[in-house]
Amino acid sequence: MSSFNFDVVTLFPKAFELINNLGVITRALDKNLINVNLYDLREYGEGSYRQVDDKPYGGGAGMVLKPEPIYKAYESIRKSPKSQTLLMTPQGKVLKQKDLARWSTLDQIIIICGQYEGFDERIRCLADQEISMGDYVLSGGEIPAISIINGLTRLLPGTLGDPDSLVDESHNSSLLEYPQYTRPLTFKDMKVPDILVSGNHEEIKSWRKRKSFERTLKRRSDLISNEKYNQIPQSKRIIEESNKFMKFIIGKEYDIYPDW
Ligand code: SAH
User: Fold this and answer.
1) Whose CA is nearest to atom 1 of ligand 1?
2) Which ligand 1 atom is nearest residue 119's CA?
3) Which end of the chain is more exposed for a tag (fewer CB within 10 A), N or C?
4) Strand partners of residue 37
């Protein structure tokens, strides 16, 4: 099986040492499931000072990454036909699990990391997609890039010990994951729900579905459907009359506990 390539253009390649200490991701590197190739922007800098940034035209605070070094670094990357180029920016589309799943079918992701006040506008056209980690501003694109490498790698076949662990987890479907427990049975007076030690797998499945719904409704009703959810005045009542309303909200049948 050929490896998945991550090619990253960055001014701080050392930041990526972190991925050598990230458990399953490190294992994927060791097993050659992924390669992480770093392109040090400084090496593509201009003049004897290897300049990579400059003051913004029109004035204003801080420095902006120049276009030439980024272009040079980008052009030195060998591109596969199944490749996408992502630009890290707080102005991009907020990253979702389904983006990672879609990219995991490719064999290369190229990531361009900004720094300082950002980058010259003319590098935007290198990107297939502009991606944001969320509505907050970081000092550079390295941590977002590492997040993408991490999140995508764990979806690749052979990375996780048990691929089934991907099935139920949060954001795989539109629901958050159900509560999880491990030993001991009682910890500081908090007891594991009886159902989980009942040995009744059907009931456990059903309980987990119910908890998934309940949790998503309480914490992230926007994941279910903002529009439809907002049409209903009292969300608490819906939970009580779950079967009927769940069908309305998510548009399909679900076998939910009758006592709910
Ligand atoms: N002045 C810029 C922000 C610069 S932050 C603006 O207002 O858009 C410096 C760099 O950090 C960015 O170029 C980007 O590569 C990275 N960065 C910061 N926040 C990010 C976020 N939420 N998602 C992805 N990248 C981010």
Assistant:
1) 117
2) 13
3) N
4) 7
In 3D space, the residue among 39, 46, 123, 51 whose CA is nearest the CA of residue 88 turns out to be 123
Q: Are the CB atoms for 83 and 108 separated by under 8 Å?
A: yes
pLDDT tens by residue, 124-166? 999 999 999 999 999 999 999 999 999 999 999 988 888 888 8
Residue whose Cα lies nearest atom 26 of ligand 1: it is 89
Bridge partners for 176 per DSSP:
none
Q: pLDDT at position 232, please? A: 46
Query: Domains in the chain and their CATH numbers?
Result: 4-153 (3.40.1280.10), 186-250 (1.10.1270)
Query: b/e for 17-29, b at 16 or more Cβ within 10 A?
Result: eebeebeebeebb
Q: What is the pTM (predicted TM-score) of this model? A: 0.87
- Which residue lies with its CA nearest to atom 20 of ligand 1? 90
